Amino acid sequence: MRKVLLAMLMNSGISLCLANGMGFFGSPGGLLLNPDNTYAFTLSSNIGSVVSCRVQDGAMSNCKDQVLDNVKISWPERIVMNTSGDHIFITNQSANIAQCSVSGNQLINCSQANYAADAIGIHGNQAYLFTTKDKNSSVMNCSLNAGEISNCVENTSLRGKFTFASVITINPAGTWAYISNTDDTVYSCKITNQQISNDCVSNKLDNVTQINGITLSSNADYVFLGNMMNSGSAKVNNGSVQRCKLNSDGTFTECGDSGATHSATTSYFFPEYIAISNDGRYAFINNAADSQNLTRCDISNNTFQNCNNAISTSTINRKANGNMQKGNTNKGNQSSALNISQTGIFPWSM
């Protein structure tokens, strides 16, 4: 995903000179809130770390790196939490999976899963793993046993349906899976007997490129999409968070800008992931390549308002976790990853 966008930007003739550790979180990856909204977890991809932040009354503070025991991560990309909030799963750009227990804001008892995934969806005691090889994504249905991914079996009915499934989100009822594909389409697929079925609706959105985040509203009646770059525009700094009404048949309607638009205080340069509070009062948005990496917005009637930097004063003790190299993977190792201190460009794999 990101290396495609990098190529697009470089072909546009725009000079990209970003310092190592750009912004507060470097190049942030996934983003989530724990169930009681007391902590947020995000990923610092170029640093190779998981960052936890205290959340109180919608304000974020006291952010710090998590040093994962037993597992080292390079270029972490996605992070998901189970329904009860006591386990976290992290994937990196080599499709390796770290699985950790959660104690407050601490990640403990980490291990590496015996399976690979580019994207993970979780509901209850089920995990859905998406891996991509030769432009075809496969889906595996797995069990969660004491926070470990196990008993994975490929869902052959979905073989070849997706060219590159980059994000998967499961609705709170566990009845729908929303899957982002590389053709700027979001598929809504029914979940039957705890399996993602081939009964899918294709939602093609106009004027968007690279949907990399799918988040449901607190009532699951709207969907918010992190759109890394609006197509059809000469501006690069024009990513947006799109909002659509979510219908009972899986279709998206009434799509448009969520209100989290570019302004003097909110610069959306590749917005990706969105985390919404349980009460629907506020949202956090991360931006993949922006000096203002995390934004906080109020929410009113499913419209984002009053968006500003989520972090005003805080510090991180940087403790890079290194490479997560072991385990089953179909995407190779990290030997081709760019080092931003050497290139001065984006700290993403090529």
Describe this structure in words.
The protein has 350 residues and is mostly beta strands. It contains 2 helices and 24 strands. Mean pLDDT is 77; it is low at 1-23, 231-237 and 321-350. Strand 17 (209-216) and strand 18 (222-229) form a beta hairpin. The strands form 6 sheets. Strands 1-2-3-4 form a 4-stranded antiparallel sheet, with no helix packed on it. A 4-stranded antiparallel sheet has the order 5-6-7-8, with no helix packed on it. A 4-stranded antiparallel sheet has the order 9-10-11-12, with no helix packed on it. The protein starts with a helix and ends in a 7-residue tail after the last helix. It has helices at 2-11, 340-343; strands spanning 28-33, 39-44, 49-56, 59-66, 76-81, 87-92, 97-103, 106-112, 119-123, 126-133, 136-145, 148-154, 167-170, 176-180, 185-192, 195-204, 209-216, 222-229, 240-246, 252-257, 271-276, 282-287, 294-300, 303-309.
Summarize the helix and strand pattern as letters.
HEEEEEEEEEEEEEEEEEEEEEEEEH
Q: Give the distance, in angstroms, between the N- and C-terminal Cα atoms.
A: 10 Å
Strands of the biggest beta sheet: in what spatial order? 1-2-3-4
Name the poorly predicted regions: 1-23, 231-237, 321-350
Note the beta-strand portion.
over 45%
The number of helical runs is: 2
**Residue share in helices?**
under 10%
The overall average pLDDT, rounded, is: 77
Shape: globular
Largest sheet: 4 strands, antiparallel
| Estimated radius of gyration | 18 Å
Structural class: mainly beta
Oligomeric organization of the protein chains: single chain
How many strands in all? Answer: 24
